[in-house]
Amino acid sequence: MKDAKGLDKQWVVLSELASKLVEKNIAVPEEAFERLRIANAIISYYLLDPHVSNTALSDAEKELMRVQSLLFSVCDAELMNEYLDKMAKALRNELDVKFPLSKSMFNKEVKKRGDFESVRVKIKNEIQIERLSDLGEWYGVIFEYSEEDENKILIEGNINRVKRALKDFSIIWKFESLEEQ
Question: DUF2096 domain location, by residue (predicted)?
Answer without folding.
Answer: 7-96, 115-175
